[in-house]
Amino acid sequence: MLPLSSPPTAPPVTHSSPPPFEVADIVRAYGGAFRATHPVSHEQARALRAIAQCRTAALGGHVEHWVSCGTERVCYDSCRNRHCPKCQGSARAKWLAAEQALLLPVPYFHVVFTLPHQLNSLIRVNQRRLYDSLFQTAAQTLQEFARDPNHLGAELGITAVLHTWGQTLTEHIHVHCVVTGGGLSPDGTQGRACSRRFLFAVNALGAVFRGKYRAGLERLRRQQRLTFAGESAVLAAEAAWDSFRQQLYAKPWVVYAKPPWGSPELVLKYLSRYTHRVAIANSRLVFVGDGVVRFRYTDYAAGGAAKVMDLSAEEFLRRFLLHVVPTGFVRIRHYGLLANRTRQGKLSRARQLLAIMAATPLLSPLPMLAPESALPFGTATRCPLCAGTHWRRIARLLPQRGLPP
User: Fold this and answer.
1) Which of 32, 120, 224, 279 has minimal Cβ neighbours within 10 Å of its Cβ?
2) Which has the closest alpha carbon to 60: 400, 379, 403, 405?
3) Whole-model pTM?
């Protein structure tokens, strides 16, 4: 049950206990009223239903018996929806265990490509096409610079992750690219590494990124593959579109790059912060009740100051649902050396040549055991009473149909 009044201070959040408030609390308390008064897509409705039912009797579960002390407890199943804040820890650990085999003995750079906010209303009604275009344009921009002999003259490996939110859940559409600081020459006979402190000039990247994305927009419009609806409906007129196009050209597009990390372990650890994030973590929620949601955020415009924002539950859900991506949409993609079709051969060759260049041994697989704090609540490996580690499943609980979503 949700509290009826605001607590004076938020209780501390630890890794060993669930946070005091959850997005699921908001959905259960206010989701029905929201859906009754707002249009909700099929994907958004499914995400709301999954979050509300996650680890409840509605999904079923099992009973665990701890051998050491005889304690029994009920564990309900997870929804596994990729927008659910409670279901990302185990998914992230599994993904990282597979990704460790893709590392190369080179520095890695973090490059972020951000779309201007003028595009937000158009993207809302063209998510799949314009998110696809963002991925393709960012990868093409990096590869164009990398293949230029005046820069690197090599094919890079790129892992790109889509994020659509800012700290206050407003639309801030960008891709995080983790980029190898080296790769294979076009003929595949040489390994080439860039400077350990510099990849490419971000201003030049931004100009090329802007040109490629605008060209992609024009192509989609000529092919009549763009939808104009809601706030973007006015752009269907030729004059409005010309003005909009000039606005996009008039300002620089932001590309941000960070210096490289020092080891493959740090690359994986850093990458894990981005791969399976959702719009807001439960740990950021301070209070839920009385139709209000209060949460922490970082104000980067104020030098990274930690602040607290109050939103109505209705506005919180509206913002949260902006970041539900279309069904089947792939939010994590690989390009260049890491592209799925040619990955095995190119990676093997690049790893061999780059290791010889650096006179270092080839990378060995890294242990990627997920810490217990990264596992979702309800899957702890120790008894909550006696801290024993031996348990067995003694009963299966079937889903309880007919429970409210």
Assistant:
1) 224
2) 400
3) 0.84
Q: Are 43 and 325 in contact (CB under 8 A)?
A: yes
Identify the H or E element spanning 76: strand 72-76
- CA-nearest of 135, 167, 200, 107 to 309 is 167
User: Both 96 and 117 in a single domain?
Assistant: yes
How many whole angstroms separate alpha carbon 281 and alpha carbon 264?
26
Beta strands in 210-254 (DSSP E): none
- Residue 216 scores a pLDDT above 80: yes
H-helix or E-strand spanning residue 392: strand 391-397
Interatomic CA distance for residues 176 and 112, integer angstroms: 5
Whether residue 138 lies inside any domain: the answer is yes
Question: CA torsion 199→202→208→209, rounded to 10°?
Answer: 100
In a domain, 52, yes or no: yes
Same domain (yes/no): 147, 274: yes
- If pLDDT is split at 50, 70 and 90, which confidence band does 17 have? low
pLDDT at 356: 61
Residues in the chain: 405
Strands 305-312 and 292-299: antiparallel
Residue 34 inside a domain? The answer is yes
Q: In the structure encoding, which two tokens stand for residue 159, read together?
A: 């892992």
Phi and psi dihedrals of 389, rounded to 5?
-115, 0
Map residue 74 onto helix, strand or coil: strand
- CA 193, 198, 204, 207 dihedral sign is positive
Beta carbons within 8 Å of 196's beta carbon, 6+ residues apart: 107, 181, 260
Query: Cα(168)–Cα(296) distance, rounded to whole angstroms?
Result: 9
202-222 and 127-147 helices cross at what angle (nearest 10)? Answer: 140
Which of 37, 3, 81 minimizes the C-alpha distance to 294?
3
- Separation between Cα atoms, residue 199 and residue 50, nearest integer Å: 42
CA distance 265 to 73: 36
Instruction: Provide the domain limits for residue 71.
Output: 23-84+376-397
Q: What is the pLDDT of residues 233-282, one digit of tens each?
A: 999 999 999 999 999 998 889 999 887 776 666 777 777 778 888 999 99
